[in-house]
Design a protein that fits this description.
Elements: H1 3-13, E1 15-18, H2 20-28, E2 34-37, H3 43-56, E3 59-62, H4 67-73, E4 82-87, H5 112-126
Parallel strand pairs: 2-3
Antiparallel strand pairs: 1-4, 2-4
Helix pairs in contact: 2-3
């Protein structure tokens, strides 16, 4: 399940606070476990929110949506700039999980000396 689905699950089975002002208040009261915010928050609001998140050591994520799109994704009839999860309910958040880096195909380069040694060894064996 994606993060959006987990947020929706928390909204239906747990306790979630919507809006930047209520989210900030929830953080200051020490009740927020996770915070999600839209990418286009006003700079001053985002700075204040990030500062509070760092002080409270709260797991958070900037979502790749505008505040209008974030509200639509969450099934709300209004824009959502930020939300705080107070109680997860049945939702499972794993914000520490990192995407596995793509494996690079590395071609081994052989030096001319190695190639010559191999050739001479093969020549000796055939004699």
């Amino acid at each position: 399940m994606g993060l959006e689905e987990q947020i929706k699950r928390a909204m239906s089975t747990g306790t979630v606070v919507l809006g930047t002002k209520k989210t900030e208040k929830t953080i200051m009261l020490g009740k927020a476990k996770y915070v999600f915010y839209s990418q286009d928050l006003d700079d001053a609001v985002k700075e204040r929110l990030v500062y509070l998140l760092e002080l409270g050591n709260i797991k958070n994520k900037e979502m790749p949506y505008t505040y209008k799109a974030f509200g639509e994704v969450l099934g709300q009839g209004f824009p959502v700039g930020a939300l705080a999860v107070v109680s997860e309910g049945k939702a499972l958040f794993d914000l520490d999980a990192k995407e596995e880096p793509k494996k690079k195909i590395v071609k081994k380069k052989t030096s001319k000396k190695t190639a010559k040694v191999t050739a001479t060894e093969e020549e000796k064996e055939s004699e």
